Amino acid sequence: MKQKINRSEEEWKKLLTPEQYAILREKKTEIPFTGELLRNDTLGVYSCAACGQEIFSSKNKFDSSSGWPSFYEMISSDRVELVLDDSYFMKRIEIQCSRCGSHLGHVFDDSPQPTGKRYCINSASLGFTEGSEKEEEEKNDQ
């Protein structure tokens, strides 16, 4: 993991689109089935849209029919922080980028995939870099 990023909310507002700011910094949620990366099936790496830290590999993405991009595993567990979220009268586990503290989505224990985890991520909180799985693995081994 790279060095932590600390910016003022004014700095984040200048760097992010209004939608990204609402999701990443104010912990809003995009409307289901509207995200640009929901149906992306290109090989590559998904990163935090705020700071660029790589978080998910396309090889761990799956269609959960939830309306948001879903992954069953992260590139590395040190890329995120899991925080109890009891907003809206629910108990959920929020996923935050470990580098900049931005809100990415929530994790649930209802995936049929190998880990049983469903990392349900707002598309607007992600960046995507196209590349082969082999390139991803070589990059992650460094």
From TrEMBL:
Its cofactor is Zn(2+). Transmembrane segments: none annotated. Residues 9-131 form the MsrB domain. The keyword tRNA processing does not apply. GO terms for molecular function: metal ion binding; peptide-methionine (R)-S-oxide reductase activity. GO terms for biological process: protein repair; response to oxidative stress. The keyword Nucleotide-binding does not apply. It holds the Pfam family SelR. Keywords: Metal-binding, Oxidoreductase, Zinc. It is an enzyme of class 1 (oxidoreductase). Its EC number is 1.8.4.12. SUPFAM superfamilies: Mss4-like. GO terms for cellular component: cytoplasm. It catalyses: L-methionyl-[protein] + [thioredoxin]-disulfide + H2O = L-methionyl-(R)-S-oxide-[protein] + [thioredoxin]-dithiol. PROSITE patterns: MSRB (PS51790). Belongs to the MsrB Met sulfoxide reductase family. This is peptide-methionine (R)-S-oxide reductase. It comes from Methanococcoides seepicolus. The lineage of its organism: Archaea, Methanobacteriati, Methanobacteriota, Stenosarchaea group, Methanomicrobia.
